[in-house]
UniProtKB/TrEMBL annotation:
Coiled coil: none annotated. GO terms for molecular function: transferase activity. This is Glycosyltransferase family 2 protein. InterPro entries: Glyco_trans_2-like (IPR001173), Nucleotide-diphossugar_trans (IPR029044). CDD domains: Glyco_tranf_GTA_type. It comes from the Bacteria.
Length: 328
């Protein structure tokens, strides 16, 4: 492969922000060999042409591809297929970070990692530095990292990871086709469960909100949001097939799945869908049967499920800031 890293940017109708997004991506890889792959999802404005002009005028290596009116997952898969970098990372216009990839590359050169992520708090960053001094930088297994995520000790963001390209292709890991919600969590879990070398870089991830895409009013999502539930179910099924402990399997069955269903309920109610219509969608798809509590169901989630199941007309959805991101 001819580059150290490939940056994959899925874009659609961001003509007023594409230059700022590409500036941010270029800052990430200043002074080392990088490839830029911009995958356009049927933009109706000048996004594609401005991206092409930017790459050409700045003398960057890469390409701008027209991918049609598919999902973000399909655009990301196209980028992975075309990538010529030893590693790859994803750049999302609505979720940008200050430069972190230089630290990631330093980390992988030390340990030859398959998958790298950063710290999301100063406390976590200090712990990573301490492990590094004690030569314990790398998580031993994917299940160990999953336990840390379950315990709230760390979290992963698809917009702030770096993955070895040969690892993805060798393990046939890709994003689920036609999936617009929940695709990131599913992809990340598949990566960490199959990677032989996981590493956390001692860098504190910080958002670059100044250059992020100013979305304006978001389109109505509707019943498509239940793709999020399907993605979590696929993760649960993957864990059932793999050699992970029962605690993690129960965590997904008794917390993440009902949590995902309630996240979808909240989104639909915030979109002003009537509760009877939401209940009808749940029954039609069978998701209502997933709203059960168990030993791994947190008390707050138990109360939400109970209120929704017994008196949905009294249920109040969580505010958007309290919920997980709608698209992930």
């Amino acid at each position: 492969m001819g580059y150290e890293i490939t940056l994959i940017l899925p874009v659609r109708n961001i003509e007023n922000d594409i230059v700022r997004v590409l500036d941010t991506a270029r800052d990430q890889v200043d002074n080392f060999s990088a490839e830029f792959i911009v995958v356009d999802m049927a933009s109706e404005d000048a996004t594609l042409w401005r991206a092409l002009h930017y790459i050409e005028s700045h003398g960057l290596s890469g390409m701008v591809l027209q991918n049609g009116e598919g999902s973000v997952s399909e655009a990301l898969n196209t980028g992975i297929q075309k990538a010529a970098g030893k590693y790859l990372s994803f750049v999302f216009a609505r979720r940008l970070y200050r430069p972190f990839l230089r630290d990631y590359l330093t980390t992988v050169r030390e340990e030859n990692a398959d998958f790298v992520f950063g710290a999301t708090s100063e406390e976590e960053q200090k712990m990573v530095l301490q492990r590094k001094r004690n030569q314990l930088l790398r998580y031993r297994t994917g299940t160990e990292l999953l336990r840390a995520i379950q315990a709230g000790e760390t979290r992963l963001d698809i917009a702030a990871v770096m993955v070895r390209t040969a690892f993805l292709r060798g393990k046939a890991i890709s994003f689920t086709r036609d999936c617009s919600f929940g695709y990131a969590e599913e992809f990340l879990i598949r990566c960490i469960l199959q990677a032989e070398r996981l590493q956390q870089a001692p860098v504190l991830l910080q958002r670059n909100t100044v250059n992020e895409w100013s979305q304006g009013k978001q389109e109505v999502i509707g019943a498509r949001i239940f793709q999020k539930v399907d993605a979590v179910i696929r993760i649960s099924e993957l864990l059932a097939r793999m050699n992970v402990d029962e605690d993690l399997r129960l965590y997904y069955r008794e917390q993440r799945i009902p949590e995902a269903v309630m996240e979808c309920v909240d989104i639909l109610l915030r979109e002003k869908m009537q509760y009877n219509a939401v209940r009808g969608l749940l029954r039609l798809s069978g998701y209502d049967k997933l709203l059960k509590s168990g030993g791994h169901t947190p008390k707050a989630l138990r109360r939400r499920i109970l209120r929704w199941n017994t008196a949905p007309w009294l249920y109040k959805p969580l505010k958007k800031a309290e919920s997980r991101p709608q698209k992930d």
